[in-house]
Automatic annotation (TrEMBL):
SUPFAM superfamilies attached to this UniProt entry: P-loop containing nucleoside triphosphate hydrolases (SSF52540)
Protein name as it appears in the record: AAA domain-containing protein
Domain AAA: 72-273
Pfam families: AAA_31 (PF13614)
UniProt KW keywords: Plasmid
PANTHER family hit by this protein: COBYRINIC ACID AC-DIAMIDE SYNTHASE (PTHR13696:SF99), P-LOOP CONTAINING NUCLEOSIDE TRIPHOSPHATE HYDROLASE (PTHR13696)
Superkingdom field: Bacteria
Species for this entry: Paraburkholderia terrae
Amino acid sequence: MSTKPFKVQAAAQLLGTTVDMVRRLVDESGIKVERQQEGTKTRLFSIENIFELAMYKANRRPNATTERKQVVVSVYSPSDGVGKTTLASNLAAGFALKGLRTLVVDLDFQAGLTRSLGYEPELTREEALGQEINESRIVEYHLGSLLPDYPFRHVSLLEAIKKPYGDCGPHLIPADLTLDRLDTVLTEQAREDPNAHFAFARLIKDGKSKDPAVDVSGYDVILFDAAAAKNRSTSCALLASDYVISPVSIAKSSTKALSYLSEVLTELQDQFHRTPELILVGNFFDPNPVHVIGQLSTITQTHRGAWLERSIRRSDEFSEGLAGLLAHPIIVSKPGGQASAELRDCVDALLKRMCVTVG
């Protein structure tokens, strides 16, 4: 998915390094970067260049040959409108900008994440051709298509995934309206087999040994964008995850939603003896009003161990991302903005909390 080209200063911001280091990385890696046709012949980095350099930068370090621990994460909130999908798309891009091989899975049949990454989940192939839309933008498969017991068409991982920013950017397993069938299938299977709740966990664990065509072991991070509703797919994602990242919009009343979230995780622990570790990320808030400070104090005291030390304040950039007005994740589309800087800080803090080593 194309973006306008980045100059070297923006490339340095995206990669979290200096201009001189970016130039050195380009020279070392041999990655082809276009130049302006006129004037100073300035290098113009494509978004694919940026992710290629991110992976090269991570892999050139002395400990890069050490096998990384794969981490599985769900971004989930029982409340709508708190920036869940916006956060998920930016975390996926942010992890890939650290050179981590990242797979993001859209688990909401409304397909907000899929749309935000440039795909058209409601178009058929014929409609795409009629509207002169590239066929690669349509959605034909979703996570259910990878499950061995799914009663509809079973496909390989390579057939299902989308690569909006090339091989080195985050990969996407998209969603469309037919994803709603998956929840029905999982519910029916769970009536006969309690292990059906672990369908996603089995897919992640068993792909390499039992079905290499759906092997996801090559990814450092697998990130589920779970639906707000506590449906069967969301439960399966939570049971497959090491961590659940929940955005908290401080400007809204979050106490009830967080209490419900705690109940969901407790139920998983009681029923399945398995629950992901909770990480709360404050977002889209202005820390100045007195009532917000009071709300923040209550939440951080109640959930002290879960609260991430980095947050995302209210800003025009985040408002645009939340409203779906940006064609790309904020962290990519506006690298010099306040929201991007805070999102990059959140990515760093999350990787530290999850003990994920880059390089």
